[in-house]
Design a protein that fits this description.
Elements: H1 2-20, H2 24-27, E1 35-37, E2 43-49, E3 54-59, E4 64-68, H3 72-80, H4 84-92, E5 98-102
Antiparallel strand pairs: 1-2, 2-3, 3-4, 4-5
Helix pairs in contact: 3-4
């Protein structure tokens, strides 16, 4: 009887865990950070969350990346730089942990 109860419990937990796994749509990042358009050859828009210190950048190729633990000063310097793409390459790219919010347009599969 004990073995059957353990088996039933294990099956129940497996079903619950499988249901809790996010689908590919749910696993994507939904952005609530407003971005403003910028004059740049490589960047299209930039958004920043002061509360969470998250910088979000949309690139000319359609990709959107989110950068974590970015100080307000870095955001300010990016927005006031003469060349936003050059500032991004020198001060942001590879200096902050990031996640891709949306792939570049070429990488997106047609629906």
């Amino acid at each position: 009887m004990k073995t059957r109860s353990l088996f039933t419990l294990a099956m129940f937990l497996a079903v619950i865990l499988r249901a809790a796994e996010p689908t590919t749509e749910e696993a994507g990042i939904l952005s609530h950070i407003p971005r403003e358009r910028v004059q740049s050859s490589g960047l299209t828009s930039v958004g920043y969350s002061k509360r969470r210190h998250i910088l979000e950048i949309e690139f000319a190729n359609g990709a959107i990346y989110r950068y974590f633990e970015v100080s307000p000063a870095v955001h300010r310097d990016l927005m006031t730089s003469e060349s936003k793409t050059r500032y991004y390459d020198a001060s942001i790219k590879k200096n902050y942990r990031s996640v891709r919010v949306r792939p570049r347009v070429k990488d997106q599969s047609p629906n």
